[in-house]
Fold this protein.
Amino acid sequence: MTEIKRTAAITGVHAWAPRNVVTNSRLEQLMDTTDEWITARTGIKERRWMEEEGMATSDLAVHAVEGLLKKTGTNPLEVELLICCTATPDMAFPATANVITDKLGMNQTAGFDLSAACSGFLFGLNTAARYIESGMYQKVIVVGADKMTSIIDLSDRSTAIIFGDGAGAVLLEPSTDGLGVRDGIMRSDGIGRTYLCQKAGGSLNPASLDTVNRKEHYIHQEGKTVFKFAVTNMAGVAQEIMERNGLSADDVQWLVPHQANKRIIDATRERTALPEDKVMVNIQRYGNTTNASIPLCLHEWEPQLKKGDNLILAAFGGGFTWGSLYVRWAFDGAKALNLADVQPGQLNLIP
Ligand code: UT7
């Protein structure tokens, strides 16, 4: 690889999830399912659902971005670009990024949404890095946010149990020490577009009484097919990015997988030959939060992350979309959070 002179370093991370915890036993009351089935098939024990009226994806994102600005001491007016990665925008248009910047008084910030389903945050991070590397921008925020409960069909037990609501954001700034996004692979294959989708509401099937009656505004997933593609491609691309950067399992401090299913995470870990204690897993507490899952992990593990750590991020999502990023972490999390000594397992949990 040619040497990169200016890289995009992650200089801050923050995440947020609603306080409302929905356990598997609560789902047992709502549909024909069991804690045993959900735990064995997915690894999920609970998720957060935003149940207050009138709250949208932008509200989740605002919590994450506001916390990030505060934590990093960033003047909102200095942020030049905000990319919102989401599968559940507030509206079809305008972009949710515009709603977020308006709610936070960031009227100097350009914004757009990026749609790549569960791989969106990774695609957004890779895209944002190019704006920094080119010298165009000095401060870019990437936020992954989804209110998955807005498209969950409670009568479809195979998908309703998986998803949760949340948001996570990172700040990117230039580095001349090779810190930050070092390499990225993004892939998509439209063959997957019918297996995981929201059938109606777009130009193909505009909203009508019929589309509502057929429940086509909810998430549709053919789980088994998606599972097979996810296992092969997410694990494959993580291995590929390690190989092309000459990284062995010993060189990598953390694998940060999209939290879709514990069994998919395990397959990716096995393929990269990393031990379990190097893999960020919080699916048991948040479920699949789509675009928020990777930044939720980074936020939670922030106290343990050290400057120079090598991270491999990997995701798979609807479309199909998948990809992997190699990131060199840019700061000591414990120091940034003013924590004296962080023991493994002492994490930055969301209340
Ligand atoms: O994040 C983006 C990408 N998404 C993914 O990566 C998700 C990939 N897919 C999956 O994670 C899994 O396919 C699921 C978790 C969605 C489903 O697990 P599965 O092992 O593929 O189960 P299945 O859909 O094949 O269903 C097996 C059985 C069926 O019963 P029969 O036909 O064998 O009698 C289902 O009706 O389990 C039944 N079932 C349930 N039982 C209890 C399906 N959902 C449930 C449920 N509770 N919630």
The two ends are 42 Å apart (CA to CA). The chain has a mean pLDDT of 96. The CA atoms of residues 48 and 194 lie 27 Å apart.
